[in-house]
C-alpha cells in the first residue's frame, strides 16, 4: 500500500482508495443503504461489498479498467463500448427498485430555468449558448416509462476487460428513471461512441439522449465550478454545450 488516494471529495460524500479497498463516506447514511440495495438487485456485475458502517461502505476493486475519463479520448475498443451498452440494456430490462431515479419532470424543469438564468446573469456562459442548449434540452421533457437506471453512469464507473464488462461502480443514484439519461451520461463528452453503445444496447431515442447531454450539462456547470471541478476543461460540460451550436 503506497498511501491513501482521494478519488472524489465534496460536501456530500468522499471516496478514498486504500490499496484495493475503496471507502465511501456519505453524509446521508440512507443513501448508502439505497446504494447497497441497488447493487444487490442489479443484474450486472458490481464491486463486492466488504463491510458496512452507518456512514461508510467498503468496496473491493474491480478487475479491468474504466472505459475512460471525461475530457480525454477513450482507450476502450468499440467492442468494449458495445458490451457496456448490452449491460445497460440488461439493467434497464430488470424490474426497478421502488426508489425514484433521474427523470425530467416539473422539478427538473424549474431547476433548469433557474440554472439558465444564473449562468447568464453571473456571466459564466453566453446567453446564446444557454438559450440554444435550453431549446435542445426540451426534448428530455417527454413521456418516458421509468426503468431500473443507474443514475450516474459516468465512463469512470464502467470497467471492462477483454471487451467484457467486469463491473459498474457508484449506485448511489440508482432507481426508477429515464433510461436515456443513463445512455447520455455514459456518452457525455464521447458522442462519437454513441453508435458503439447503441450497437450493444439496441433501439433507443437519440434525440432524448442529445437533450440529456444539454440538460445535464446546464444543470451541472455551476455545481462543478463551486465544488473544485472544471467544467471548462477540454471535452467537458462546456464543450458539450458548445457542440450543440
TrEMBL record:
The record lists the organism as Actinoplanes couchii
Q: What is this protein called?
A: Aminoglycoside phosphotransferase
> Gene3D superfamilies given for it?
3.90.1200.10
Output the Pfam families linked to this UniProt entry: APH
Record-annotated Aminoglycoside phosphotransferase domain positions: 31-192
Q: What is the top-level taxon of the source organism?
A: Bacteria
Amino acid at each position: 500500500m503506497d498511501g491513501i488516494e482521494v478519488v472524489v471529495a465534496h460536501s456530500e460524500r468522499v471516496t478514498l482508495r486504500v490499496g484495493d479497498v475503496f471507502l465511501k463516506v456519505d453524509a446521508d447514511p440512507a443513501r448508502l443503504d439505497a446504494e447497497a440495495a441497488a447493487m444487490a438487485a442489479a443484474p450486472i456485475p458490481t464491486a463486492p461489498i466488504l463491510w458496512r458502517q452507518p456512514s461508510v461502505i467498503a468496496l473491493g476493486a474491480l478487475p479491468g479498467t474504466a472505459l475512460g475519463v471525461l475530457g480525454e479520448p477513450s482507450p476502450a475498443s468499440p467492442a468494449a463500448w458495445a458490451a457496456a451498452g448490452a449491460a445497460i440494456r440488461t439493467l434497464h430490462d430488470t424490474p426497478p427498485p421502488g426508489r425514484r431515479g433521474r427523470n425530467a419532470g416539473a422539478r427538473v424543469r424549474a431547476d433548469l430555468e433557474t440554472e439558465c438564468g444564473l449562468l447568464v446573469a453571473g456571466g459564466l456562459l453566453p446567453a446564446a449558448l444557454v438559450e440554444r442548449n435550453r431549446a435542445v434540452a426540451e426534448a428530455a421533457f417527454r413521456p418516458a416509462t421509468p426503468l431500473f437506471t443507474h443514475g450516474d453512469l459516468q465512463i469512470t464507473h464502467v470497467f471492462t476487460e477483454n471487451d467484457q464488462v467486469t463491473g459498474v461502480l457508484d449506485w448511489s443514484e440508482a432507481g426508477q428513471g429515464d433510461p436515456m439519461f443513463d445512455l447520455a451520461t455514459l456518452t457525455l463528452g464521447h458522442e462519437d461512441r454513441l453508435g458503439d453503445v447503441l450497437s450493444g444496447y439496441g433501439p433507443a431515442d437519440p434525440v432524448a439522449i442529445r437533450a440529456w447531454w444539454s440538460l445535464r450539462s446546464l444543470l451541472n456547470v455551476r455545481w462543478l465550478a463551486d465544488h473544485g471541478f472544471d467544467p471548462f476543461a477540454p471535452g467537458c460540460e462546456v464543450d458539450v454545450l458548445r457542440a450543440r451550436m
